[in-house]
Design a protein that fits this description.
This protein has about 240 residues and is an alpha+beta fold. The protein is about 60% helix and about 10% strand. It is built from eight helices and five strands. Strands 2-3-1-4-5 form a five-stranded antiparallel beta sheet. The protein is elongated. The model is unreliable at about 180-190 and about 190-235 (pLDDT under 50).
Length: about 240
């Protein structure tokens, strides 16, 4: 391969590592061309499967900043599954194909820049697909909404039951609040009647006092008349 071709190949690999959600390194020793074609069909749109040269791939992972995560895995015949879709679907496709074709060996990979061991990739394959998880989440939210609606609908009935329990308890303790209110109104009315009677009594006493007061009298006729008094002058001699 000419140097220009190598430079182009490294640039393409670097771009794939940088733009993919993840990458899984495998060893394909012993797999036929037909089996590799079958594997690509199994992965579908979730990932692209490419046979790579270790020397060029080491340069590409270094330029992509993934040297520590992937460079140690680049030994023997290597192929990379670049994740372009659902990571879980990719892991599931690789795991299932490896079970049916033991020559495919999963060596490890990266997901969002974090290294993954073969065991972690297999565990990732056991996760339910994104569509199933979303459907379960939607179902759980719907069930929660239904329970909340049922609780709100039951509130009026619960309030009525509480009111009835309070009424029964009040009667058991000696009467309902209504008779107590009537008694208070009756006491108020009696107090008003008593005040009215007291006012009438005070009015009667006032009238009696006025009738027993002495009448006004005119000047006393028996008083001596100043004009009738005897005045005597000196005797004439």
């Amino acid at each position: 391969m000419a140097n220009a071709e190598k430079v182009t190949a490294v640039a393409e690999l670097t771009e794939r590592f940088q733009n993919s959600a993840g990458a899984v390194l495998t060893e394909y020793r012993g797999l036929s061309v037909a089996q590799l074609r079958e594997l690509r069909g199994t992965l579908g749109e979730a990932a692209t499967f490419a046979v790579v040269k270790n020397t060029l791939t080491k340069i590409a992972v270094e330029q992509a900043g993934l040297e520590n995560e992937l460079a140690p895995l680049l030994t023997g015949p290597s192929a990379v599954a670049f994740v372009t879709g659902d990571v879980v679907e990719t892991a599931k496709g690789l795991r299932d194909f490896a079970k049916a074709n033991p020559f495919l060996v999963i060596k490890g990979g990266v997901l969002d820049g974090k290294a993954l061991t073969p065991a972690e990739i297999t565990k990732l394959a056991d996760v339910e697909p994104r569509e199933v998880l979303l459907a379960k989440l939607a179902g759980a939210m719907k069930a929660t909404t239904a329970r909340a609606a049922g609780a709100f609908a039951a509130l009026p009935v619960q309030m009525a039951q509480l009111a009835e329990a309070l009424r029964a308890k009040t009667e058991a303790e000696g009467g309902s609040p209504e008779p107590a209110a009537d008694s208070a109104q009756s006491s108020t009315a009696e107090g008003s009647t008593a005040e009215s009677s007291s006012a009438e009594g005070s009015s009667a006493e006032s009238s009696s006092a006025e009738s027993s007061s002495p009448a006004e009298s005119g000047p006393d006729d028996s008083s001596p008349d100043e004009s009738g008094s005897d005045e005597s002058g000196p005797a004439e001699g």
